[in-house]
Specification:
By secondary structure, the chain is mainly α. It has one domain: dinb family like domain (Four Helix Bundle (Hemerythrin (Met), subunit A)). Strands 1-2 form a two-stranded antiparallel sheet. The radius of gyration is 16 Å and the shape is globular. The chain starts with a helix and ends in a 5-residue tail after the last helix. 32% of the residues are buried.
Length: 191
């Protein structure tokens, strides 16, 4: 895996988010997050659902239509941490299969390379790791290499992110802001 920079970043992003999931205290699962409609549990559920899709799309070569509502509802169950760990392990294994990143996947918005899909998953995990960190009072500092990766991923289409309904409108970063603060501002988060 070390020979593939994308898989290295994917592993880092999952490990960082995993660290935050493992830090959630029992009394924090219903706490609010910077994602205004989501509690901590909702945020972790969202990322868990995303990871569950990966083996189906990448390894199984199934379409979104074929998968249907398989992952709708409460995928976290009684043990959100264990549910996350299983889903992350499945996504990690699917992307790491020999030749997996060269495959084509059929996503909700159309066909894509698995490598591009993996890049999106890395960026999403990075941003939501910050959201989770803020919600539970953990260290909010993101690893520099993950910030740089996420800026490169979201940069080309950042102007369209708000239109998806998944991101807030970009906000003006404070003068002298560092790369992480600029990234978060680009994605509608006030720091």
């Amino acid at each position: 895996m070390d020979s593939n920079p994308l898989l290295t970043r994917h592993e880092q992003a999952l490990a960082f988010f995993t660290d935050r999931v493992h830090a959630v205290r029992r009394d924090q699962w219903q706490a609010p997050t910077p994602c205004t409609d989501w509690s901590v549990r909702d945020l972790v559920r969202h990322l868990t659902e995303e990871q569950l899709w990966v083996p189906e799309l990448v390894t199984g070569q199934r379409t979104v239509t074929e998968i249907g509502d398989t992952f709708d509802g409460d995928v976290l169950g009684e043990d959100p941490v264990a549910a996350w760990d299983r889903a992350a392990a499945g996504a990690r294994a699917a992307f790491a299969e020999p030749g997996a990143l060269e495959r084509r996947v059929r996503l909700s918005y159309g066909e894509s390379t698995a490598a591009a899909y993996c890049s999106q998953m890395v960026a999403d995990a990075v941003v939501h790791a910050w959201d989770l960190s803020r919600a539970i009072g953990a260290d909010e500092r993101l690893p520099d290499e993950l910030v740089s990766f996420t800026v490169r991923e979201f940069g080309p289409y950042s102007a369209d992110l708000e239109k998806t309904g998944l991101f807030g409108a970009a906000v003006e970063p404070p003068a002298g802001a560092d790369a992480q603060t600029k990234l978060l501002a680009l994605l509608g988060r006030s720091v």
